[in-house]
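Translate structure to sequence.
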């Protein structure tokens, strides 16, 4: 595991769209308790720049804008944090498995 600061275009996009991330997570929350936990995140004060339907596409564009080492991060993002909606991301950085037949 390693940590790296997010490039400004990615971080700004995430922070601008915390309410969108919260909405997307609410849609996939399996338990009432998880939805209630997400409702506690009412500290969000920025106006979103995208709607939930366009979030992942725009997030992918921002990652490409940040440089070649970041261009595939959107497809490999597992979660946002802290508290499920914040300026940190957890990324699956494992190398793809080579399957032999």
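Result:
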């Amino acid at each position: 595991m390693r940590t790296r600061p997010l490039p400004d275009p990615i971080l700004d996009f995430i922070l601008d769209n915390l309410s969108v991330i919260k909405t997307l997570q609410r849609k996939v929350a399996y338990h009432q308790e998880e939805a209630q936990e997400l409702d506690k995140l009412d500290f969000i004060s920025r106006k979103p720049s995208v709607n939930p339907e366009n979030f992942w596409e725009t997030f992918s564009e921002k990652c490409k804008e940040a440089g070649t080492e970041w261009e595939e991060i959107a497809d490999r993002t597992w979660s946002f944090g802290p508290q499920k909606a914040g300026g940190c991301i957890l990324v699956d950085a494992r190398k793809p498995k080579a399957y032999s037949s």
